[in-house]
Amino acid sequence: MKNSILTTFILLFILFSSFTTQAQEIKLASWNIPWLGSHEYNQRTDSDYKELALYAEQLDADVIALQEVESEYWARKVFGDDYNYYFSTQDWVQRVGVAVKKSSGINVIAKEYKALDVGRIRYGMDITLTKNDKTLHLLAVHLKSGCFTAPLDSKSVKAMPSSSVNEERLKEACTKLSNQIKPLEQWIDTHAEQDTAYIVLGDFNRRLSQDIALKYSEDKGLWQALNDEGQEALWTPTATKNSGCWGGHYKDYIDHIIFSPKAKENYIKASFDQLVFKPKYTKELSQTLSDHCPISVKVKL
């Protein structure tokens, strides 16, 4: 009788252990903290860093894609010593990086994705996360800024006027963002062909909801260019929501977390969240805190 009870207990323990191993959740986030580095544009005081740290503590994510952060030194001023940091080496203060919580038990392989540099543009970070024999591939990005809704096909871009400085900047932005589509597609294609779970996240500097609303063709919209069929049938929670950042001052999301079908299977339903700042919007606060509110999701890994 005692042996029977002991055997039952052992089997239940193994079953429970197996279940908990399979059902563990991690929180993924993306946050652009502008000019967090040695650049003269960073005018933050000690109290500003403390406030940022409080929001970082509230975010409490296991994995965070960072944009416009110069290095591990500057990231630690906000996120502390509880994370391992992986940054691109590009010679520019606005770097892309990824922070992974040390206590998460996640194994990390990190490498730069330099193909996104189509002319003085930020590299991406290609991150492989492994836990409990499960793997999730991430591409952290910060794409070219300035071309938020304009069509990206070569004919439209070439036809853009360039008689003023602002027009020249818009045309250059759209040209470079358009040129980043191919390396983005290549990264997605590679992981789709391998039938893996993958996520592209970060600051896309593109209003994907507007791409969808404008019903762009595949050559004109960034979302349409990336979204395809099979393992390239992508999904993002930001495509159908309005941003509440700074009281809706920035209504359309340009930060996104884009899931492949396999990654979507591990998405925790209704877990998408945006951490909004408490004060009312002012230009100064958007510079000392951020003009981007962090976004996050929870997934099984």
Show the helix and strand layout.
Elements lengths: L1 H21 L2 E12 L9 H14 L3 E7 L2 H8 L3 E5 L8 E6 L5 E7 L10 E8 L2 E9 L11 H5 L6 H29 L4 E6 L4 H6 L8 H5 L28 E5 L1 H4 L8 E2 L8 H6 L6 E6 L1
Parallel strand pairs: 1-2, 7-8
Antiparallel strand pairs: 1-11, 2-4, 3-4, 5-6, 6-7, 8-9, 10-11
Describe this structure in words.
- The chain is an alpha+beta fold and 301 residues long.
- The protein has one domain: Endonuclease/exonuclease/phosphatase (Deoxyribonuclease I, Chain A, 4-Layer Sandwich), CATH 3.60.10.10.
- The protein is 33% helix and 24% strand.
- The protein contains nine helices and eleven strands.
- It is globular.
Question: Quick gist of this model?
Answer:
This protein is α+β, with helices and mostly antiparallel strands. 33% of the residues lie in helices and 24% in strands.
Low-confidence stretches: none
Neighbour order of strands in the largest sheet: 3-4-2-1-11-10
Query: Mind summarizing the main beta sheet?
Result: 6 strands, mixed
- The CATH superfamily turns out to be Endonuclease/exonuclease/phosphatase
What does the average pLDDT come to? 94
Number of helices: 9
Order of helices and strands: HEHEHEEEEEHHEHHEHEHE
Tell me the overall shape.
globular
The number of strands is: 11
Helix coverage percent of residues? 25-40%
